[in-house]
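Hello support,

Our group uses your service weekly, and this is the first time we've seen a run hang past the timeout. The protein is Peptidoglycan binding domain-containing protein. I'm not sure whether the cause is the sequence or the server load. Input pasted verbatim:
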Amino acid sequence: MKKNPKVIAGIIGLMILAVLAIVLATYMIPTISEVRREASLTPTPLPPAPDTIRENVYAVVTPEPALHNGSQGEKVTKLQERLQALGYYEGEVDGQFGPGTREAVVAFQERNGLDPDGYAGEETQKVLYSDLAVPKGN
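Update from on-call engineer: The timeout came from a worker crash unrelated to the input. Re-ran successfully.
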């Protein structure tokens, strides 16, 4: 029987691959075993307890509601005082958001590059109470 060189080369190639697979397995089996051991030692994180969930829900900061015509109270008083300090509000500080307060808010918004809608929403209040607020006279 005549020996085919291609068959012999194929058999030699398979033998080399088999040897490489055995060598690789020799190195990988301990590594895989160590990874499995480490994984078994790592605790599985537990979901948060119901009390923790409830605390997190209450910890979420909700934006302040917009102050507008008809709003009243301490927040409006604070708004009027700040607008007055910046020169926009000239009326009586009474805690009542009326036409005069609305006009002052619109003027402030226009001067400070905000949407002049007359509502003292989150963005308007953020600028109003910051050091970036531009006074009426400047």
